[in-house]
Structure formats: C-alpha cells, structure tokens
Amino acid sequence: MRTPLIASLALWLALPAHAQPAPADGGDAAPRLHANLSLSLLSDSRERGLSNSANRPSAKAALELLHASGLFAELELLRVSKAQYPGGSGLRTQLAGGYRWGDPDTWHYELALLHTRFPGSAQTGLADYREVLDPVSGEVVDLEPVLTRVKPTTTELQARLSYDQFSLRYYQTLSRDFYGINSETICAALEDPLLSYECLQQGPQHSRGSVYLELAYRYRVGKAGSLEARVGRQRVRHFREFDTTSFSLEYRHLWRGFEFSAALVGARPRERELYRVNVGDGRSRDSARTTLVLGLTRGF
C-alpha cells in the first residue's frame, strides 16, 4: 500500500530540479518550494471526534513541504496512549502526499494518500482454533486458540472539495483494515470461548472500504481569529457497531507567531462501550466523550 505514496513523493522531489524556470532578468527566482514546521501542545488529542491519547495531554510535531506546482508532502508525529495502542512506543506517525489546485477564494481541491502507523503497536487477534486430540482415543477433547498480532497500520485515500470557507472531505480505507478492525481482533475480544469460536465460523472479514465524510465551515473573526464548525460521519465496513458521528466547534487566534485554540469536540458512537479505554486498576475512560480541548501551536 505504500508504493503509490512513495512514487508520488519521488515525483514531487524531482520537480524542483527540473521545473524551476530561470529568472528572466538575472535576479533571484521566487522560491518554488516552501517548508512549514509546527509544534503543538494539546490538552487532548482528538481525531474524528475520538481521543487517541485516552483523554490526556498530548504533543504534536508536523512538517509540511509545498511545491509551487501544487504537490505537497506532510509528516506528522503525535503522542498517543499506550493503553489504546498496546505494545507501541506511544507514537503515531502519519505520512501524506498529494496535489492541491484551484482558486482559494472560490473552488479549490485536494487529492492525497495518507499512511498512518503506530510503531511497535499490535492487537491480539484470534486466527483459528486448533483441535486437541486425546493421545489414546484420538478424539477431540479441547480446542486451542491460534493467536496472531494485528497492527493498526492504515492507508487512506483523501479527497477534499472546497468553496471559499466551506469544505467537504472524504476518506476511504485502502489498506486491508481500518485501524486493525477485523474479525480476528473482534473475535479475540469475546471472553466466552464458545462465542469467539462461533464468531470465527462466520468467515474472515476485514474493514477495507471504510469511509469517513466531513463537512466544515470556517468563519473569520477579525484579522487574527477564526471559528470553525465540523460534523463528520465514520462508517466501518462489516463492523457497523464501530460507526460514529463526530462534531467540533473550534476557535483559533494567532498572536505573535503563536496560535491559541479552544475546541468543543466529541463523538456519538453506535456502541459507546467499544470506545471505552481500559487504563488499568479497573479504571476506564470514554474516548468519545464531549470535552473542551485547548491547544498552543508555534509555527516556524
């Protein structure tokens, strides 16, 4: 799944050397490649309305490379909860590459690939049950689970259609699974061995083809502020119990190179229990609960 993304980035990297025109008057040419670096501190890390830091503070670093042709590449590093992504380093890496075009004051568009990884993280999956035979009679006396590890690595296609301050985003999962959701991880989560065995008998199912649709509107407040409202709908293919509706209302203000943000954000899951995070000592946190998220970002 990484091949198309790598190919698009390779094409993007080749453009500056071959596409930059020489200045007609011998002066300096306008830069065709721009780099934007930002560092953020967040009271909670939210994605599509859901916390991936278990409702705890997080930090983010993002690097964006923009070419005058419209091609772009982005790398984002985000701190996430080890309770939600067990076995991992507590880090999410997201690499994106694509193309933007159009008039930012009227119609403009974006098409990109997103590749998300959680280094070291994997969920326990149940691949099958192995029959245990009695050494004397040869009869089946028990069933032994065959376990596997499922990584939450996800690749998505992203398309954005915008007009002025309105935008409509569409995401579709291209990888085999959407954040590791498949029949192996679902069946493994069932505590009753009989239920997990019956779950597997329904055949293997994966969540490729899951979609997320989001509508957003931004209203400018003075010269340095903006208010943005978003509503989104996540559909997880073959596993509708994971479907969610997300929403947020965020105010951002730019001051001396710093951006301050405050957002009321949350989600309405089809089955809320699936989004409760076990953080140990018998305690759990609701990753979908509505909360106020504060942020501070510095751009370079």
Can you put this structure into words, describing what you see?
The structure is a single chain. The chain is mainly beta. The chain has three helices and 18 strands. It has helices at 3-19, 183-188, 193-200, and strands spanning 33-42, 46-47, 50-51, 58-67, 71-79, 91-102, 107-117, 123-133, 140-150, 154-163, 166-173, 211-221, 225-235, 244-255, 258-269, 276-280, 283-286, 291-299. The longest helix has 17 residues, at 3-19. The relative contact order is 0.14.
C-alpha end-to-end distance: 32 Å
Q: Got a strand count?
A: 18
* Structural class category: mainly beta
In terms of per-residue confidence, which ranges show pLDDT below 50 for 5 or more consecutive residues?
A: 1-22
- Biggest sheet features: 12 strands, antiparallel, barrel
Helix content: 10-25%
The pLDDT mean sits at: 89
Q: Please work out how many helical segments DSSP would assign.
A: 3
Strand order of the largest sheet: 1-4-5-6-7-10-11-12-13-14-15-18
What is the chain-wise order of helices and strands? HEEEEEEEEEEEHHEEEEEEE
Rg measurement, Å: 23 Å
**Strand percent estimate:** over 45%
The geometry reads as: elongated
What is the chains' assembly state? single chain
Ordered list of secondary-structure elements with their pairings:
Blueprint: H1 3-19, E1 33-42, E2 46-47, E3 50-51, E4 58-67, E5 71-79, E6 91-102, E7 107-117, E8 123-133, E9 140-150, E10 154-163, E11 166-173, H2 183-188, H3 193-200, E12 211-221, E13 225-235, E14 244-255, E15 258-269, E16 276-280, E17 283-286, E18 291-299
